[in-house]
Request: fold
Amino acid sequence: VQILNFSLSGMRCWSTRAMKIGERGNVKMEIGPVKWSSRVKVVTCTAQDGEGYAMGCEFAANEVARRSVA
Reply:
């Protein structure tokens, strides 16, 4: 999955696999000392000219953790 757009309430991503509306998943990212994860729910899924699918997902719950930097 490739993230196309990211906001406070959700994200738009691209995938080679379609997902059903209402399907849920997890997103995890790590940027420097900050780790972030969230449950997401698919709200849109649109075929992109036979090359994959663009999906709109809303965040259901998220968590931010900070690693200690030595």
